[in-house]
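Hypothesis: this fold can be encoded by more than one sequence.
Test: take the structure tokens below, design a sequence, compare later.
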């Protein structure tokens, strides 16, 4: 018995020692965690990925620095950092007089191009902007008994008031939402096209500049789409064939259609507002064969080790920093708001290669 106890104590001591060593390494990523997104933002602003893409193949450091007008020694340090993280690929090159590297694109670096079909550049630029970074410094005030709202406490307005009053930020925000819509809606159509079957008209509630509906009508030629958002958003929306832009307030009335589509909107609001929005969506669709297509995150219950769970939990922290009452919801919490909004039944499906789920609610 004594030998077993000694072995158990020894195993625990080794485990604790290993955890201490790992902790000493891990703490540095929390000290300097801001560095990665800052350097990635730098790469986007410099246009490094576009330069390599436009070249049609790998480029040397001197070629990139010449093309972009950058200091070669500083750019070398940036590229060393980014290639170490596999954002770009470093290919050893040598001549009779020197040794060095050429730099090539990767699937990840292409997502830093502003106009690539899988671009995430606009989202990165939004979330790394001074406006969106500043509220994080007030996160503890949000959690304290004072219950301050980080964004409102920082900017004296909530996110929506600030966006409406500041056109530059509004454009940045809408570009980021279009970036998200481009990736997510394309994935929904590829993985769950039946969500759009049997409907002739579709209203996108909070649809921004209409990117989501432009993708839907292109893939589903039988659908007539309505892009519905606030006046200052619709005023900047481009003309899109078979998409009608309508300005209004989703808390007051939603335009009539066979189905409503609402993506990355409900997580901005507390349950009471979500229920109100969903009720307006339900009123806008027919009782027979109508549906509300909700594209949102679902936080998995404890014990679920989905590889995307960490990203979804991060989104929840973003909601805490940038909205007054927004949050990502568990399936139990979604069940509550959907039923309280008067829907009789709903289905839930995860969408491949995205963090999103589709919740289909029926009157």
């Amino acid at each position: 018995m004594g030998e077993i106890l000694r072995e158990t104590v020894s195993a625990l001591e080794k485990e604790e020692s290993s955890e201490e060593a790992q902790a000493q390494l891990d703490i540095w990523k929390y000290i300097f965690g801001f560095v990665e997104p800052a350097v990635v933002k730098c790469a986007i602003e410099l246009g490094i990925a576009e330069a390599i893409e436009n070249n049609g193949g790998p480029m040397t450091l001197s070629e990139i620095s010449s093309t972009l007008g950058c200091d070669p020694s500083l750019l070398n340090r940036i590229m060393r950092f980014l290639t170490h993280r596999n954002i770009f690929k470093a290919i050893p090159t040598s001549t009779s007089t020197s040794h060095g590297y050429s730099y090539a694109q990767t699937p990840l670096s292409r997502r830093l191009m502003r106009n690539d079909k899988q671009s995430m550049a606009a989202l990165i630029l939004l979330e790394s902007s001074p406006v969106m970074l500043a509220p994080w410094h007030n996160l503890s005030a949000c959690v304290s008994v004072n219950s301050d709202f980080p964004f409102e406490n920082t900017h004296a307005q909530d996110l929506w008031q600030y966006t409406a009053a500041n056109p530059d930020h509004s454009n940045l925000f809408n570009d980021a939402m279009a970036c998200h819509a481009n990736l997510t809606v394309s994935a929904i159509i590829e993985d769950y096209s039946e969500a759009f079957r049997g409907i002739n008209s579709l209203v996108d509630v909070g649809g921004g500049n209409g990117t989501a509906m432009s993708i839907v009508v292109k893939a589903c030629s039988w659908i007539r789409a309505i892009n519905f958002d606030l006046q200052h958003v619709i005023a900047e929306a481009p003309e899109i064939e078979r998409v009608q832009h309508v300005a209004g307030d989703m808390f007051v009335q939603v335009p009539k259609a066979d189905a409503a589509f609402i993506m990355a909107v409900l997580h901005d609001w507390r349950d009471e507002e979500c229920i109100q929005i969903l009720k307006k969506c339900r009123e806008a669709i027919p009782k027979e064969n109508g549906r509300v297509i909700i594209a949102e995150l679902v936080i998995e219950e404890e014990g679920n080790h989905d590889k995307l769970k960490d990203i979804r939990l991060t989104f929840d922290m973003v909601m805490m920093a940038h909205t007054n009452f927004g949050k990502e919801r568990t399936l139990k919490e979604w069940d509550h708001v959907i039923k309280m909004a008067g829907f009789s039944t709903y289905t839930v499906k995860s969408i491949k290669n995205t963090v999103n789920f589709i919740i289909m609610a029926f009157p």
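The chain has two domains: 35-110, 124-362. The chain has a mean pLDDT of 92.
Hypothesis status: open.
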